[in-house]
Design brief:
The complex is a heterotrimer of chains A (330), B (434) and C (276). By secondary structure, chain B is an alpha/beta fold. Helix content of chain B is 46%, strand content 14%. In chain B, β4 and β5 (127-128) form a beta hairpin. The chains are: A alpha+beta (330), B alpha/beta (434), C mainly alpha (276). At the B-C interface, β1, α2, β2, α4 and α11 of B face α6 of C. The structure holds adenosine-5'-diphosphate and magnesium ion.
Chain lengths: 330, 434, 276
């Protein structure tokens, strides 16, 4: 079980409200990702769920029980920190065993569980080492091991991969996804990286300045962003925003994803000079300087023959998103 | 019936505690680290045999630390010490304050045997407040060989002019030999002791009879200029940081023609174990200018009993033993006459055995040449030869000493140093309410 | 080229560090050497460095004259006692300041440090009188308490700086892992703070060992530590440099040896906060 409900929760530090009243339902077994720019309150929200911070008002319900004022240890949740937060004076074995020891399990049981976790996480050979003697990825796995042995109602991850190099990050990402498939336990995962969010989540919660902009599956967010903010945040390369007037549109602003533009020699909605063309083989990223609009990005097929300085046209070949003055989707 | 029983019990208890107290009374003796005091610590078996009921604990300290601690203790009636080693400077002040127990000894002690000059310095209102353990004055120590080489002969009582001339003749800077080694280190017990004693022989004084500082007098100007000339021309380099020990080292290494300092130094420079010139040293009285006062000081390390002690009787037994004629004989029998603490008793100098010690007579003559009650040519309101026995003197003295040391180092002229000394002394005396 | 420059740079620093180290160590070396000379050799001009007849006579004299073991024991009791007592007070204080800081915590810390700026003589008489009226003059108890108070600001500061370095994440992780406050302190906080506590302890033992104002002024015979032992060999009239050196060597040897063996710990303790 791992069902979490946030009801009208707020959080203020001194006089600054970081989280305005916020409601959210997390279903049992779901992989939920909080995504948003740095400083938008993702970690704070996660720490409120964990019990490491007290809510200023509102209720937190975990598995039907009011956990608003429960101590972190009473909530049955496990957390993996960005810094790993391993106990530097303990061996890997002792690190993983620590929550079990605190729970009062007997030694045999602890050993069994630690070995099990070590096997799952490929840590068996490192059990007697100290965290200081491990690589970043290994440390991260120890932190995860420490979390899984408790068999928590839910896992909380706070940017667990951002201290790893790019290649390792991709690996660990799939390991966590595999883990979720195996354990089927609720996971709440915080990241500022929309790629991580898109690849991992069942449900993405987009946060902006403490406010939930939109909740939905990755494809829902991609196809039907409720606001300019979500539209701009989800998808890579970023959506192009163009004043409505430039396309004879009544909307204040329109949005077109780069992959929904074609580069043509004749005609097209917009014309301009190629400012750069990046040939990646599979795709080509073309940046076009459109007079009166600014730079517009297009993602087109890999074999197109355009070069810097060419005069080209851009033709819309997909949905056009329309936004009003407040940035809301029309 | 009941009360009698109670009284009996009380008496029994009381006598029991008194008995234990008497059987193991420990007195604490605070002392400076000098050869004579250390020697006494090695001779305690004799005291213990004579006074089995008294244990003695020693606290040996550096002079300035001792002075500070003992002053704090006595001013606050701390009662940490039962016997204190204090100098001629403290005794008149502390005696006057009622901080010390007046000493009265039985006839066998023969108090009249104490050297009059020394005893005078330890007496306040006809009460003896401290018993002298060893006394010292200052005198000229010189290299007989260098004096002969210079074609001069040291008179028994030289004048300052002769000293200047001899210093000039003996100085041989190429050989690293300096005519006059004299204290220059800034402290009231170092350079100022020498300069104040010298000033006495130049007819200068610290204060007139109304406590007016006299550094603006011609006599002081003569004194300081003479001192600076002597050292600047014929003294060792860096003289402004030399104290007793530095000059002792220089003299023992054969770098000095003359050294004017404490009589106690005589036993060091004539000791062949430490001194390279042991067999070439002659002695003369401290110099004068023919005005009736010589430039020598007077000091006695003395044993006193603080008024706060609860063990005055035991303390007195110790003081009497340590300063008795018998103690001198004890030292002589164990360590030889040359190691007997000097400068306290007339009878010692009458002893034919002691007269064989080379510097004995010169020490006695030097001590007798100083008079702490009348230290100067013109009358003064204070007691003390190389100091002024008032509580403010330590602070004033060290400040003045710094001025004089600065003049020697060349940071100031003699006139500037004297003007500064005058001003600071006036200020301090005003503040003290004189 | 750039690489060569960094190498020669490194060389310069190394040489400078050695020169500085040698300069600082020289007086100690000189003292130790002097303690093996005769008094005459000790003052000889020009001075001799190694070329003299080594003798143990100074040590013998000092042994005969003074009760070294008593002074030594007093030093041990005072320095270790005051440090332990200080830790007892400082550990909780520093915990509170580091992990539950209030609005005025920084001010309190600064104020504590400012008490160290006052010269000790300034409070000499009041403290002397307090100790006296408590009947504690010349007692180790008084010195343990006074030394503890004298060094408490430093102990608290050192511990505070050290505790500040412990990442809050780790403590939170322990909380998430189900540790109660007590277990958090026992299993996580304390073991992680041990190096800091140990170096604080070492440094304060050394400070208390070498302290020469209160230890001299509040003791006479019974409680006098090694500082008084040294002071008893210093003499303004008479050259006892060799004996004084022997006494000094005997007084600093224990702490020097302790310092040598705990070097790593000490360096870490003294530089934490400075380097990460
Ligand atoms: N303990 C705190 N005290 C005061 N402000 C805080 C505290 N923790 C976070 N904040 C503020 O709350 C906001 C959200 O922070 P955080 O939740 O860490 O953002 P994110 O994890 O999304 O980058 C930031 O403006 C941050 O400065
Ligand atoms: Mg964060």
């Amino acid at each position: 079980m791992g069902q979490i409900t946030l009801k009208d929760i707020t959080k203020s530090f001194d006089d600054t409200q970081v989280i305005p009243p916020l409601n959210l339902d997390i279903k049992d077994g779901e992989f939920v990702v909080f995504v948003g720019p740095s400083g938008c309150g993702k970690s704070t929200l996660l720490r409120l769920i964990a019990g490491l911070e007290d809510v200023s008002s509102g209720d937190i319900v975990i598995d039907g029980n009011d956990a608003t004022h429960a101590a972190p240890s009473e909530r049955g949740l496990a957390m993996v920190f960005q810094s790993y937060a391993l106990y530097p004076h303990m061996s890997v074995r002792k690190n993983i065993a620590f929550p079990l020891k605190m729970a009062g399990l007997d030694k045999d049981k602890i050993d069994e569980k630690v070995s099990g976790a070590a096997e799952v996480l490929n840590l068996t050979d490192y059990l007697e080492r100290r965290p200081g003697q491990l690589s970043g990825g290994q440390r991260q796995r120890v932190a995860i091991g420490r979390a899984i042995v408790r068999e928590p109602a839910a896992f909380l991850f706070d940017e667990p991969l951002s201290n790893l190099d790019a290649a390792l990050r991709v690996n660990m990402r799939s390991e966590i996804i595999d883990l979720h498939h195996q354990l089927k336990t609720t996971m709440v995962y915080v990241t500022h990286d929309q790629v991580e969010a898109m690849t991992m989540a069942d449900k993405i919660v987009v946060l902006n300045a403490g406010v939930i902009e939109q909740v939905g599956s990755p494809l829902e967010l991609y196809h039907s962003p409720k606001s300019r903010f979500v539209a701009g945040f989800i998808g890579s390369p970023k959506m192009n925003f163009i004043p409505g007037t430039a396309n004879n549109d009544a909307a204040f602003e329109i949005g077109v994803r780069p992959e929904h533009l074609l580069v043509v020699t004749e005609g097209g909605e917009f014309r301009g000079k190629v400012a750069s063309a990046e040939h990646l083989g599979s795709d080509t990223f073309v940046r076009v300087d459109v007079p009166g609009v600014g730079e517009v990005n297009a993602r087109v097929n890999g074999d197109i023959d355009v070069n810097y300085g060419d005069e080209v046209g851009l033709q819309i070949n997909g949905p056009v998103y329309r936004f009003d003055e407040d940035g809301l989707a029309i | 019936m009941k009360t009698i029983k109670k009284n009996l019990l009380a008496t029994a208890l009381l006598s029991a505690t008194m008995a234990t107290a008497a059987s193991a009374e420990t007195i604490t003796v605070a002392t400076v680290n000098n050869g004579d005091m250390i020697r006494m610590q090695g001779l305690m078996a004799d005291f213990n045999a004579k006074h089995p009921g008294i244990d003695v604990e020693w606290v040996t300290l550096e002079e300035s630390v001792l002075r500070e601690k003992v002053t704090t203790d006595i001013a606050t009636k701390g009662g940490q010490y039962d016997v204190m080693t204090i100098g001629t400077y403290e005794v008149p002040i502390w005696g006057n304050n009622g901080w010390l127990v007046p000493l009265e000894f039985d006839v066998s002690y023969d108090v009249d045997d104490l050297l009059p000059a020394i005893r005078g310095g330890l007496t306040v209102n006809d009460n003896l407040y401290a018993a002298p353990f060893y006394g010292e004055s200052s005198m000229v120590m010189f290299r007989e060989d260098l004096m002969a080489k210079a074609g001069l002969e040291m008179p028994k009582a030289p004048s300052w002019n002769f000293i200047m001339k001899a210093a000039k003749e003996m100085t041989d800077k190429d050989e690293g030999i300096y005519g006059a080694c004299i204290r220059g280190k800034a402290h009231w017990g170092e350079n100022l002791a020498f300069i104040t004693a010298t000033a006495n022989s130049f007819g200068a004084r610290w204060f007139d009879e109304n406590w007016n500082p006299q550094f603006d007098s011609a006599e002081w100007s003569d004194t300081l200029n003479f001192y600076l000339n002597l050292l600047n021309r014929y003294g060792p380099p860096g003289a402004s940081s030399n104290g007793f020990n530095e000059n002792l080292a220089l003299f023992q290494q054969g770098k000095c023609g003359m050294w004017i300092d404490a009589t106690v130094a005589a036993s060091f420079v004539t000791n062949p174990k430490d001194s390279t010139v042991a067999d070439k040293v002659g002695f003369a009285l401290a110099p004068d200018n023919g005005l009736g006062k010589r430039g020598n000081w007077l000091w006695a390390w003395s044993l006193a009993i603080p008024a706060g002690t609860e063990k005055a009787d035991a303390a007195k037994s110790f003081v009497q033993w340590a300063t008795s004629k018998e103690y001198l004989e004890l030292v002589a029998s164990k360590e030889g006459w040359a190691n007997v603490p000097p400068g306290t008793r007339t009878s010692l100098y009458a002893n034919p055995e002691y007269q064989k010690v080379p510097f004995a007579q010169m020490t006695l003559d030097s001590i007798n040449a100083a008079d702490p009650q009348n230290p100067t040519v013109d009358p003064v309101p204070y007691v003390g030869v190389q100091f002024v026995a008032i509580p403010e003197f330590q602070a004033i003295g060290t400040a003045v000493a710094q001025e004089f040391s600065a003049a020697l180092a060349g940071d100031k002229t003699a006139e500037e140093a004297l003007a500064a000394a005058q001003a600071l002394t006036e200020r301090a005396m005003d503040k003290a309410g004189y | 080229m750039a690489r060569q420059q960094t190498i020669s740079n490194k060389l310069v620093w190394t040489v400078l560090a050695w020169i500085l180290g040698a300069t600082i160590f020289f007086p100690i070396l000189w003292t130790v050497l002097t303690s093996f000379k005769t008094e005459a050799q000790a003052i000889s001009i020009p001075p001799v460095m190694f070329d003299f007849d080594w003798t143990f006579e100074n040590y013998e004299t000092v042994q005969e004259r003074s009760n070294y073991s008593r002074h030594f024991w007093n030093s041990v009791v005072i320095s270790v006692g005051s440090t332990l007592l200080g830790l007892l007070i400082a550990v909780p204080a520093a915990w509170a300041m580091a992990f539950v800081p209030g609005k005025r915590t920084k001010d309190v810390l600064m104020w504590m440090l400012s008490t160290k700026m006052m010269p000790a003589v300034g409070v000499m008489i009041p403290i002397y009188l307090m100790v006296q009226s408590a009947g504690l003059l010349d007692s180790k108890t008084a010195l343990v308490i006074i030394m503890m108070l004298v060094n408490l600001p430093i102990i608290i500061w050192m511990l505070y700086t050290y505790f500040k370095e412990i990442p809050g994440d780790i403590l939170e992780a322990a909380r998430m892992d189900g540790a109660s406050l007590k277990n958090e302190i026992i299993y996580v906080l304390t073991p992680m703070a041990v190096p800091g506590i140990a170096s604080t302890m070492l440094l304060n033992v050394i400070l208390a060992w070498n302290e020469a104002f209160w230890t001299l002024n509040l003791t006479a015979a019974k409680a006098a530590p090694l500082t008084a032992f040294i002071a008893s060999y210093s003499s303004p009239e008479g050259l006892f440099y060799a004996k004084l050196s022997a006494a000094s060597t005997m007084a600093i040897a224990p702490i020097l040896i302790m310092g040598w063996f705990s070097q790593k710990q000490l360096v870490r303790g003294l530089t934490f906060g400075a380097v990460k």
